Amino acid sequence: MTLDNFPEQTLQMADDYEGRVIATLIRSGKNVNGRKSVLFIHGYNDYFFHVHLADEFHEQDYNFYALDLRKHGRSILPHQHQNYCRSLREYYEEINTALDIIQTENEKEIVLLGHSTGGLISSLYLNEGKNKGLVDALILNAPFLEFNLTTWQKYVIVPLSGLLSFFNPYAFRKKPFAHLYGSSISMKHKGEWDFKEEWKPIGGFPAYLKWVYAVYVAQRKLHQASEIQVPILIIHSDKSSQPKKWDEIIFESDMVLNVEHIKEYGKRLGKEVEFLEVKGGIHDIFLSCEEVREIAISKMFHWLQH
To answer: Cα–Cα distance between 239 and 194 in angstroms, integer?
Structure first.
């Protein structure tokens, strides 16, 4: 399949502090009503382009849906700051709507699959979202459960972002090494994947301090009191790296998050948590080299079947 086989449904959301808001529900053209379904939620500086993942779910008799969250990808409007939010709870509205639509069309098991910040949002949602009862299982692909920072940055700079953004809601910081990860996955640079750089810039969108603080608040909530009731599978690389210039290790490690943080805080998310460590995986496990991602996908479906 190609992205042409994925019809898009614009979801009109309530206006927010920037004006009109939409989200976009993408569904596979191969969906057949009445099957189990998966809802894919992308990460920060991201949108849905993972056609190969949809193909894998279809082979296992799942319907495939994806959300481009508000101010991301297909849902960016001209008057908005891209990838911006003031609370991760803002995304609950489109998740509620998407789950209602999927349940109406299928009335079967729904799996929520979140990557990175999408994994953080999904985890928070399954603690307090209105339609959390419609979700039967949660798969987290390298969830953003903690900042990959030094202790000083984590406990001083990140909380301070809340104060600074109170006075300047659109203050931001640059991410000097973001282009390394972007280059590693882009077909136009050193990688395998073709995506729209206006929706997923190689160097990333600015990290707005208001967004940084919103992530911090959500992470603290999950660290202190997460009671997700459905089975959880957490998929992550076997190692992290923090290169300051191009290095081949980027092709076989998570250079965005610390996998030890994922393991430490992931086990606190609920009573039934399993981990899938993927040797040679990158930050988005499903964009790793073919051999690595095929192993991860096979083991993921083995977990879903048991």
So the answer is: 25
